[in-house]
Amino acid sequence: MDADPDRLDYPRIVQEAFRDVVRRILAQVAEHGLPGEHHFYIGFRTGHPGVEMPRDLRQLYPEEMTVVMQNQFWDLEVDEEAFSVVLNFNARRQHLRVPFAALLAFADPSAEFGLRFDGGAGEPGEEPAKGEAPAAPSGGRPPSGKPDAPGKSGEVVPFRRR
Predict the structure, then answer these.
(1) What does the DSSP assignment read for the chain?
(2) Which of 2, 56, 70, 106 sits at a 20 to 30 Å CA gap from 8?
(3) Least-confidence region, from 63-77, 125-139, 144-158
(4) What digits encode the pLDDT tens for the residues 16-67?
(5) pLDDT tens digits, one per residue of 76-122
(6) Whole-angstrom distance, CA of residue 87 vs CA of residue 96
(7) d(CA 84, CA 69)
(8) Strand duo 64-69 + 40-45: pairing
(9) By the 8 A CB rule, do 120 and 104 touch?
(10) Of the candidates 109, 129, 124, the residue with the CA atom closest to the CA atom of residue 154
(11) Higher pLDDT residue, 147 or 53?
């Protein structure tokens, strides 16, 4: 994407910074493990280019899903563009690779911390996926709150315990 020299694209810059926050958190967990009671809900667009997941999961979640990283995850790897992890779905270990550009939400309920993204597009003007709230197939509840409005930029959101 070419930058407009006459305009600062604040929403895009903020989106990139928030995605970098998630990348840095996951890289730290990949290196040192999850400390204390920390655990994550990570929502993403399953149809985003570069998302790798088993066919049966993609059929169950054709638009978006939320995964929970808490007690049972393996082989977490993080690079500049994406993270990959093995999670337990219905007593089967399944490999996922998720580009940071596909992210819809990231939350750590133990820290009451959450981020929402513009629909995972990484491109200004692209609307978030429509439909139901993301599911949490590996257990737990998805982050509270209502879906973002189309075209809404990323934001830090308070996490409310239920």
Answers:
(1) -PPPTTS--HHHHHHHHHHHHHHHHHHHHHHH---TT--EEEEEETTSTT-B--HHHHHH-SSEEEEEESSSEEEEEE-SSEEEEEEEETTEEEEEEEEGGGEEEEEEGGGTEEEE-SSS--STTPPPPPSSPPP-TTSS-PPSSPPPPTTPPPEEEEPPP-
(2) 106
(3) 125-139
(4) 999 999 999 999 999 999 999 999 999 999 999 999 999 999 999 999 999 9
(5) 999 999 999 999 998 899 999 999 999 999 999 999 999 999 864 44
(6) 8
(7) 12
(8) antiparallel
(9) yes
(10) 124
(11) 53
Q: How many CB atoms lie within 10 A of CB 64?
A: 25
* Sequence-separated contacts (24+) of 109-112 with Cβ below 8 Å: 109/39, 109/41, 109/143, 109/159, 109/161, 110/36, 110/37, 110/38, 110/39, 111/38, 111/159, 112/158, 112/159, 112/161
Fold of the domain built from segment(s) 10-146: SH3 type barrels. (2.30.30)
